[in-house]
Amino acid sequence: MRILLVEDDAEAAAYVAKGLREAGHVVDHALDGESGLNMATSGGYDAYVIDRMLPKMDGLALLSSRRTEGDVTPALFLSALGEVDDRVSGLKAGGDDYLVKPYAFSELLARIEALGRRRATGPAEVTTRFKVGDLELDVLTRTVRRAERKIDLQPREFRLLEYLMRHAGQVVTRTMLLENVWEYHFDPQTNVIDVHISRLRAKIDKDFDKPLLKTIRGAGYRLSDAD
Amino acid sequence: MLRILRTTSFRFTLIYVVLFAGAVALLGAYLYSATFGEAAKQTDNVIDSEIGVLADLFSSSGSGMLTRVIRQRTAWSDDAIYMLIGAPSGAVLAGNLTALPPEALTAEGDFFNFKFEKPLLDAAGREVGIQQREARGKMMRFRASPDAEQSYLVVVARDVASREFLRERSQSVVMRAAMVTIALGVVIGLIFSRSLLRRVEVVNKTARAIRGGDLSQRVPTKGSGDELDDLGENLNSMLDQIERLMAGMREVSDNIAHDLRSPLTRIRNRLNDALEGDGEAKDEALRATIDDSEKVLATFNALLSIARIQSGEGAGAMAPVDIVAIAEEMAELYEPAAQDAGFEFTFITAPTPPVKGSRELVSQALANFLDNALKYAEGGTRIELKVGPTKNGGAVLSVADDGPGVAPENRERVLERFVRLEQSRSTPGSGLGLSLVSAIARAHGATLELQDGLSHQNDDGCGLRIVMTFAPAD
């Protein structure tokens, strides 16, 4: 992916850019809002990562101006402002995701890749059936099968699996799960998400040879057919 | 003194006085025209009709008859004035004026006012002095025929001295009354303003003391329930809020000092040591440092959230939220983790009215209760999440466990200082969970309480129950 990073803290930006490059992405970096806007206008990016508070031009203004130009490139806000209201104003300005500083790099990477994926499938396209290996999920009939065997899931387990399947092959963090499956924006102190994952795993992986739902140490989980 | 003149109450009083004086002036003008104006008009009418009668008499019976009639009339009436001057000689033929008033000739045919001297008589009819009188009248010329050269001058007038006297008198009375009214208004305005200014001055004095750093000062209230008392009470509750916020800030900075300084010191010492060590030790130090900095970040995040909630920013829009739905969601989120940790998880629910609050914050508080139960109810076997209504239409959320609990004498301290008890210092976590919950409770106007939890299996005590009580949403 070609990523535009707009961040005024040069050291933080260098750290993020290095990590993203190591993960195989191309990163352009702008130090202030105005040059960020100029670079975004020249086009060709798959995702924007924008700090909210920038010199010369605020991150919100930058993105709203791109959105009014019809630019639909997925964008993620980085911000030290983490309350619900700030998040809402970020999403209203056209942001697709919002990450509060300080964050773990693995969290940022997972979210950027989720954004890139959203773009690849396109927002207008509605997928109702998902398949990873021999695991199938149908959103309309709310059924899950693996190797043609029906698996019964609780409603929340179904939503959890649906989210994992929509992001198959990507690392999904605990925070992303809590935000998207439970719609909460705080971090529990205990391993509540892990327990839900292990219950889901018991249902979809336990009786089968090949595990699909993997734990990625220090980052989160990945649902994938690959080894 | 100058300050009083600038006060709002004084300005209001002045405006009131001006308006009142204007109204009195209008009323006076109306009374004047309805009484004196009307009386003057009547006098004029009487004079006109008198002249008409005399003119008829003159044309039918001539000057001799007229002279007789005028004589008769002046004898009858004291304040009726007549005068007839014969032509061409210019001699006064009849009447009670000694000379023709000079105004009469200039105003010929029109009404005019004039002064004349009247002898003052005693009871016996002797002249004892001269009196200045005022009269209003009209002078006409009577001719025997339209083209006759000879004409008689006739003056008919009425003595208006007593009426004029009354008019002047009442005018001056009204003027004096108006002056007194205005003066009284100003004085009362000054008195009102001064007492108001005094009470406002008390508020100002308090404000100055507070600005000087003494946040414990409060505006004294009289308990009379008037608007100044209201203002004072509102100011006081605002000050209470500010004091609470300041205390919260102090608490947060105390916590920063405590919870950030020690891991940061540890990091620095470890890195110092690592500089001396070999490869293996260096790696170990770096790993431990990463762990420590994660902890610092978590603490920092928690402190930030607390500060935000306390400043009212994090609350978002307080809208009625379904507290039962929140509890259900959190039960669903935590039940597996509780079971995995070996607890029997019970969720007790009853129909509960919605409370005013933020879903995010209420569930965060509840998550904290559950996290705490999972972390500290060591050796326990049960966790109970309960939601229900209060008697007065509010709601109560509680989480109970049968872990070691908190001794009753320590509960107040736990809630007040929000520190973990020493014995549990080693358990992971920022140690700010209860601080956060307390900030959330305050933002919702809810109360927090620690109570006896579920009793132990072997009946040797009980665990802890943390209770959050919400006031009814109005």
What does this structure look like?
The complex is a heterodimer of chains A (227) and B (474). Helices cover 41% and strands 22% of the residues of chain A. Chain A contains 8 helices and 12 strands. Chain A has helices at 10-22, 33-42, 59-68, 84-92, 105-121, 155-166, 174-181, 192-204, and strands at residues 2-6, 26-30, 47-51, 75-79, 97-100, 129-132, 135-138, 143-146, 149-151, 171-173, 213-216, 220-223. In chain A, the strands form 3 sheets. Chain A has a 5-stranded parallel sheet with strand order 2-1-3-4-5, with helices on both faces. The mean pLDDT of chain A is 85. Chain B is α+β, with helices and mostly antiparallel strands and 474 residues long. Chain B folds into 3 domains: 2-180, Beta-Lactamase (2-Layer Sandwich); 242-310, Helix Hairpins (Orthogonal Bundle), CATH 1.10.287; 319-470, Histidine kinase-like ATPase, C-terminal domain (Heat Shock Protein 90, 2-Layer Sandwich), CATH 3.30.565. Chain B has 10 helices and 12 strands. Classes of the chains: A alpha/beta (227), B alpha+beta (474). At the A-B interface, α8 of A face α6, α7 and α8 of B.
